[in-house]
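Async update (no meeting this week)

Hi team, since we skipped the sync, here's where things stand on the single-chain job. The sequence we agreed to prioritize is pasted below, unchanged from the tracker. I ran it this morning and attached the output directly underneath so nobody has to dig for it. Comments welcome in thread, and please keep replies under the output.
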Amino acid sequence: MLAPELVTEAEFSAVGALVVRAYEAAGVLGADDGYRTVLADTQGRAASAEVYVVHDGDRSPLATVTLCPHATLYAQVAAPGELEFRMLAVDPKAGGRGLGSALVAFCAETGRARGADALVGCVIDSNVAAIRLYERLGFAHEHARDVQVGDDVRLLVVSLDLRAQPAHGDLG
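Output:
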């Protein structure tokens, strides 16, 4: 069974590169997008949030997610009682194995263990695959909480009631 582990300093560069590759492959990151620097900065995220990584058999990063409790530096939309996940990314070469679903399930289980009422996140409105994933896993679109970033980026806020059924996903 593959289990998410906290990222190590030795993995910062590889995990940052994985996030950038995944966002590029999803078509949500332009060549001159300044967000690329934020995505690549695993060290910065790890200093203020929890960055988890799933490895393959040779310890290469396959997928990652960042957990951000309410009122912490990387939390964009989490309200009191919510746990936020950000920068969920699966290496494009590892797609189709259920790693994204499994990471969401891990985030939900972590939130429940910590007593959170909801798991929340943002997804750019053009990322149809991610939106479908969150819908399939039982997330609700919180329209009133959507975030407009600049003139051309709209982030949809999604939430999962952690008091309800567990999210589905298996890292096996």
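Quick observations from my side:
DSSP finds five helices and eight strands in the chain.
The mean pLDDT is 90.
Reply here if anything looks off.
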